[in-house]
Amino acid sequence: MAVIRAYQATIAGRLDAARALTDQASQWLAPEDTFFQGIVSWLNGMSQYFSHGTASASRAFSETVRLSQKSGSLLMALLSIFADGYIHVMQGHLCMSYERFQDGLRLVTAEPQRPLLDQNGPLPIGTSLIYQGLGEIARERNDLAQAEQYLSKCVALAERWGNAEPLADGYVVYARIKHALGDVPNAFQLVAQAEKLGHEGQLTPLTVSQMQIHRARLCIAEGRLDEAAQLVTTKSFFPDDQAQAADEPFSLYVGALHERTLAWLYIAQGRHKQALGLLPPLLKRLHAAGWNGVVIKVLALLALAWEGEGQTARAVKILHRALSLAEPEGYVRTFVDLGTPMADLLTKSRLSIDDKLRPYVGRLLSAFHDWPRSRSQARRLTAPESPLVEPLTAREREVLRLVVSGRSNREIAEELVITLGTAKRHVSNIYAKLDVHSRVHAVAKARELGLV
Q1: Left (φ > 0), alpha (ψ -120 to 50) or beta: where does 232 sit?
Q2: When you count CB atoms within 10 A of the terminal residue's CB, does the N or C end of the chain come out lower?
């Protein structure tokens, strides 16, 4: 009973309670009860990660693998390998994470009469988690064909498993891959399948709220900002009954996705000051936690926010920090998923970036052109193919959108939280780039060129 209660406390984020229950369970278990000792070791690893750091957590997960193999519980061993691999993802160590997930596949292969590619015998259901981890890394590195193969296997195994929580996670990762492949309808359909598990009461309230954030991210990527705004609010990402119970490290783990999504929405809306108010405090907490995998994503957003404020030099400097962390591990989608604004900023950075990073920037820019997109994405993400001699900046595109909607300069200034003089300057720059001299002609030219 203590083991079950410890698991429930862990997924609710009540890590102090989980640790106490885990200690209690450890005292009651007999030395020969290696199966439950393996579960307790896994729970200990989870709580260790959020309290004492990755080294102690990795030791706990290694112990879980040993106990699980001794008891014949391949599932617990795979759970531990997945958790340990995901720790490395959070730290930004994609290479180490990939090797850890490969350890999981090697473990499955080593099982008697379970050859990895034998289609006549089913793989252990826990292998779905390993495929999910490998698929996520392949997607980040823009190896989308490989990523899709991994997630197809992941979802098939997870559906057979019947555990709703990992199944929902698998659907979401698969949705992100489908979206990167330009298959937007199926991306939203996969998120809907994850949400359906929540409607059926099979997911925790916390997971249900996470599914809402993932849908919002798809909406932002597709330019459906009003819909995204309804899904992402400034209130806590925790359900009301869990908001006070969750420990701070767990709050950061779960809340970083919400805060990053809200900042991305602000940037897409042209509300860069709001994004700048949100991102630096988050970045500080992530640095303290050592979660460089998320730091890279936040730095990329922060660079876009400063670029939106017209501070290109500052934006490029921040982008350089992100690229320096990302290049050794092969990050691609973190930047490409941010679309035209990031493509513009990467293009501007090429002359001032370190020589050793220029080939990497070139590869990232190539990735913007190489992947298939939906029609709405193609309009928004192909800035290098702009019909203008001098393409509009991200801020100028936002101002143009407001001009087309009929806003006055004063209304534009109020909506974007900029001075009236700055708004006028943006409008003047747009006129010059479009080679027009009035709002009426600017609107007509923008529509003719497909800029709005």
Answers
A1: beta
A2: N
Select, from the ranges 72-86, 198-212, 258-272, 380-394, the one with the highest average predicted confidence (pLDDT): 258-272
Q: Cα-atom radius of gyration of the chain, to the nearest Å?
A: 24
C-alpha to C-alpha distance for 36 and 50, rounded to whole angstroms = 22
- Give the closest residue to 88 by CA, choosing from 55, 66, 111, 116: 55
CB 214 within 8 A of CB 194: yes
DSSP code, position 327: G
3-state helix, strand, coil in the chain (%, to 5): 75, 0, 25
Tokens linked to 20? 């106490």
**pTM of the shown model:** 0.73
Identify residue 225 by its one-letter amino acid code: L
- Residue 190's closest CA among 182, 178, 204, 199? 178
Structure tokens at 158: 């997870």
Q: What integer is the mean pLDDT of 133-137?
A: 97
Residues contacting residue 335 through CB under 8 Å, at least 6 positions apart: 300, 322, 326, 342, 346, 364
Q: Are 22 and 6 in contact (CB under 8 A)?
A: yes
- Across all residues in the chain, what is the average pLDDT? 80
> With the C-alpha atoms ordered 311, 313, 316, 318, is the resulting torsion angle positive or negative?
negative
Residue 210 vs residue 14, higher pLDDT = 210
CA distance 362 to 158: 38
CA proximity to 81, closest of 134, 119, 29, 31: 134
Tokens representing 436 are 């027009």
Cα angle for residues 389, 391, 395 (degrees, 5° grid): 155
Query: What are 98-123's pLDDT values in tens digits?
Result: 999 998 888 887 654 343 333 444 56
**Residue-by-residue DSSP string for 231-276:** H--SS-SS-TTTTTTS-HHHHHHHHHHHHHHHHHHHHHTT-HHHHH
